């Protein structure tokens, strides 16, 4: 099994920025795992401009923005695996994945960065009545069909939800010859940027219906129309306000959800407000050495913000690697003498392997953080029936104090009679531990 300093799950804008920041902060052994057939993530299908104003101080399309990062990754020869699905991430940072070339494989990481992005809410989350005909797509799926596959999903279209991707697809479909009947928004205000309302709707005279929603979908085999109704302040349809729209396609642009199935299975604590993992100021999850950034953490409005946050995660992961060390120990709890592998991260034990019992794991953690020993030896006795008395420390003392303890006993002599447990020397070597007799010796 191969070992890497950092494994990054996701090769989109977050994963790429995290990889570059980690390399810039001194980590050379990095692996990016990406499920698509190219790096860049969602940016590859976002052919519209508006990206990079903060990061590069110029306006780029999605593929152009991604290319800036991909070129650096290639230049620095950061390895990556495409068409690779990550199946499981374990708390010890072992990552299980699968692809056609390697089959099912595992890699061991010292740190993992979660950068899986987000997904769109499906129709099932909306509870719209009607059959399940063809012609219902999320806006992102339609974007991929048009911009990557070259397929126009419909000719007469209604869009439910006015998030940025819905607004952008209203323009994109219009430019490709489709007729967008309306963009329907249940809230009193659009969820998209004002610039997108202007350039995607107003420029093409596409109506934006605020405080409206789709209440019914017509058609069995294919969408043939939808019913749009006004809603009250609670978002409930107002009777008698329904309006029929003849269409063959309904696009859903009703929000994004962080892609966190792997995070939940890992056991990281989740934030119910963001639907992403709980992280500290270093963007580290509740699983030590596992970091999260970008839309997997919370949905961002700008890709520039994703890149900035991901760079911070990559830097922090690199710092954590420098604070990581591994040790090999032989367990001395019992005669079996198990060979132990112990990992320390920022002074905390995060992995113990090779032990065959819980006592072995407890020994390993104590041995690498606070090693102690019991000292047993002999000292002379005056006036006793035997010349030497066996003694020991009442409890363990720090391993580093063992030699000091022996030096302190060098000139100590006991006086007979001696009972087992008698204190021979108090607070040996300033450890707070007494030296006691372990043998009974009577007077001559």
UniProtKB/TrEMBL annotation:
Lineage of source species: Bacteria, Bacillati, Bacillota, Clostridia, Lachnospirales
Keywords, in A-Z order: Oxidoreductase
Stretches of the chain forming a coiled coil according to its record: none
Domain FAD/NAD(P)-binding, first and last residues per copy: 4-305
One Pfam family from the record: DUF1667
Name of protein: FAD-dependent oxidoreductase
Source organism of this protein record: Laedolimicola intestinihominis
Alphabetized InterPro entries for the sequence: CPE0013-like_sf (IPR036593), DUF1667 (IPR012460), FAD/NAD-bd_sf (IPR036188), FAD/NAD-binding_dom (IPR023753), Metab_Enz_Cyan_OpOx_G3PDH (IPR051691)
The keyword Oxidoreductase appears for this protein: yes
């Amino acid at each position: 099994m191969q070992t890497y300093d950092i494994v990054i799950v996701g090769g989109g804008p977050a994963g790429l920025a995290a990889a570059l920041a980690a390399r810039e902060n001194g980590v050379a052994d990095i692996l990016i795992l990406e499920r698509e057939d190219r790096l860049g993530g969602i940016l590859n299908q976002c052919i519209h401009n508006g990206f990079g104003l903060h990061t590069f101080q110029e306006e780029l399309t999605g593929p152009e923005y991604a290319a800036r990062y991909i070129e650096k990754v290639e230049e620095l020869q950061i390895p990556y695996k495409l068409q690779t699905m990550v199946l499981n991430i374990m708390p010890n940072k072992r990552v299980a994945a699968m692809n056609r070339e390697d089959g099912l494989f595992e890699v061991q990481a010292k740190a993992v960065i979660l950068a899986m992005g987000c997904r769109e809410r499906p129709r099932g989350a909306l509870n719209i009545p009607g059959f399940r005909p063809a012609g219902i797509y999320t806006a992102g799926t339609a974007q991929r069909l048009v911009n990557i596959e070259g397929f126009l999903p419909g000719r007469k279209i209604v869009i439910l939800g006015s998030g940025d991707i819905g607004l952008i697809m209203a323009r994109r479909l219009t430019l490709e010859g489709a007729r967008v009947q309306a963009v329907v928004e249940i809230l009193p205000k659009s969820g998209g940027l004002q610039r997108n309302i202007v350039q995607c709707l107003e420029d093409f005279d596409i109506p934006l219906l605020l405080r409206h929603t789709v209440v019914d979908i017509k058609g069995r085999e294919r969408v043939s129309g939808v019913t749009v109704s006004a809603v009250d302040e609670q978002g409930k349809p107002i009777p008698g306000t329904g309006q029929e729209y003849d269409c063959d396609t309904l696009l859903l642009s009703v929000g994004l959800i962080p892609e966190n199935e792997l995070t939940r299975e890992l056991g990281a604590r989740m934030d119910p407000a963001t639907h992403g993992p709980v992280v500290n100021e270093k963007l580290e999850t509740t699983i030590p050495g596992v970091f999260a950034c970008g839309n997997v953490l919370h949905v961002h409005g700008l890709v520039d913000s994703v890149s900035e946050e991901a760079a911070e995660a990559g830097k922090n992961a690199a710092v954590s690697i420098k604070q990581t060390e591994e040790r090999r120990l032989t367990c001395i709890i019992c005669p079996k003498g198990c060979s132990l592998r112990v990992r320390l991260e920022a002074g905390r034990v995060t992995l113990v392997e090779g032990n065959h019992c819980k006592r072995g794991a407890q020994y390993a953690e104590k041995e690498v953080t606070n090693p102690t020993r019991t000292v047993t030896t002999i000292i002379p006795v005056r006036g006793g029936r035997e010349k030497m008395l066996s003694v020991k420390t009442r409890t363990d003392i720090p391993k580093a104090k063992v030699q000091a303890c022996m030096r302190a006993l060098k000139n100590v002599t006991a006086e007979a009679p001696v009972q087992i447990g008698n204190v021979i020397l108090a607070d040996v070597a300033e450890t707070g531990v007494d030296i006691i007799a372990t043998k009974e010796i009577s007077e001559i």
